[in-house]
Specification:
Elements: H1 11-18, E1 23-25, E2 33-35, H2 36-59, H3 67-86, H4 94-110, H5 118-129, H6 148-169, H7 171-180, H8 188-232, H9 243-286
Antiparallel strand pairs: 1-2
Length: 289
C-alpha cells in the first residue's frame, strides 16, 4: 500500500513526486543537471554484477556446481552461443560486452520489483531526521526508467558498431559502403547517381538505431514503473474505517502480484532484446554489403 495515510492526498502530487529525480545542477542549462539517484543505483548495479561474477569465477568448480553457479554458467553459455551464431566477424570483445549489457540491464530493471514506496520512504525519513523537508526528498531507483541511461548505452553500442566496422573492413571499405548500399549499380555513372540516396538512407539508419534501441528499453521500464505507482494510489489516503478500503486493498494486492509476475518477464525480455539487437548491429557492421 502507499505510504501516505491522510484522507485528502493529492494523487497527482504523489505521482509527480515519485517520477522526480534527485537532481543536482552544475550549471544554468537544463543539460547541466545530474540525476544523482540514477548514477548511484547504476554504480550499485555495476558493483553487484562485478562482485557476483568475480565471486563465482573464483569459486567455480569442475565438480557439481551450486544453483547460482549453474544459472550463471547457463547464461554465459547461452550468450556465447548467441554471439557465435549471430556475429560472423572476428572479435574477442563482443561476447563479454554482450554478457555485460544483459547482466547490467537485468540488474537495473530488477530494481523496479522493489516496493514502490520502500526506498523513497526511507530516503524521506532520513531527510526529516537530518532536519530537511521530506517533501523535497526525491528518489527514483530504476536507472533504465531514466532516458539518460538507455541512451548512453545505445550511444556506446553505436560507437562500438563504428569501431567494429572500421576494424573488420578497413576505413575505405567501411565508409565506401555509405555511398554504395543499399542501392547498387554496375557502372560508375549509376554509382554516382545513387550515392546521394545511399548516403541519406545510411545516415538515417545509423541515427535511428540508437534512438530506437534506447526508447524501447526506456519506454517499457518507464511504463512499468508508472503502473506500479498507479497500483499504489488505489488506497492512497484511504482510511481503514471505510469498507471500500478493504476492497481496494484486496484489488491492490492482486494487481500488484499479477503485475510483478508479468513484469519479471518484461525486465528479462527487455535486457535480452537490447543485447540481441546490439549483437545484430555489430554483426551488420562487420559484414560486407
Amino acid at each position: 500500500m502507499a505510504a501516505e495515510g491522510t484522507e485528502s492526498v493529492d494523487m497527482t502530487g504523489y505521482i509527480q513526486h515519485h517520477l522526480h529525480h534527485w537532481q543536482v545542477k552544475v550549471g544554468d542549462s537544463a543539460f547541466m543537471t545530474i540525476n544523482v539517484d540514477t548514477l548511484i543505483f547504476t554504480l550499485l548495479c555495476a558493483a553487484t554484477f562485478l562482485f557476483l561474477f568475480v565471486f563465482l569465477a573464483r569459486r567455480a568448480t569442475s565438480g557439481v556446481p551450486g544453483k547460482l553457479q549453474s544459472i550463471v554458467e547457463a547464461v554465459v553459455l547461452f550468450v556465447d552461443g548467441l554471439v557465435k551464431e549471430t556475429f560472423h566477424g572476428k572479435s574477442k570483445v563482443i561476447a563479454p560486452m554482450s554478457l555485460t549489457m544483459f547482466g547490467m540491464i537485468f540488474f537495473m530493471n530488477f530494481l523496479d520489483l522493489l516496493p514502490i514506496d520502500l526506498l523513497p520512504w526511507a530516503w524521506a525519513s532520513g531527510h526529516q531526521i537530518a532536519g530537511h523537508d521530506p517533501a523535497h526528498a526525491y528518489l527514483r531507483i530504476v536507472p533504465t526508467a531514466d532516458l539518460n541511461t538507455p541512451l548512453g548505452m545505445a550511444l556506446a553500442v553505436f560507437l562500438m558498431t563504428q569501431y567494429v566496422g572500421i576494424t573488420q573492413k578497413g576505413v575505405g571499405h567501411f565508409f565506401g559502403e555509405f555511398f554504395t548500399a543499399p542501392f547498387h549499380a554496375e557502372g560508375p555513372v549509376g554509382k554516382i547517381l545513387l550515392s546521394p540516396a545511399n548516403l541519406l538512407l545510411r545516415l538515417i539508419e545509423e541515427c535511428v538505431r540508437p534512438v530506437s534501441l534506447s526508447l524501447r528499453l526506456f519506454g517499457n521500464m518507464y511504463a512499468g514503473e508508472l503502473i506500479f505507482i498507479l497500483i499504489a494510489v488505489m488506497t492512497l489516503g484511504a482510511g481503514l474505517a471505510h469498507m471500500s478500503t478493504w476492497f481496494l486493498g484486496f484489488g491492490q494486492i492482486v494487481a500488484g502480484f499479477g503485475w510483478t509476475a508479468f513484469h519479471i518477464l518484461i525486465i528479462t525480455l527487455q535486457a535480452f532484446i537490447f543485447m540481441v539487437l546490439s549483437i545484430v548491429y555489430l554483426s551488420m557492421a562487420a559484414e560486407s554489403h
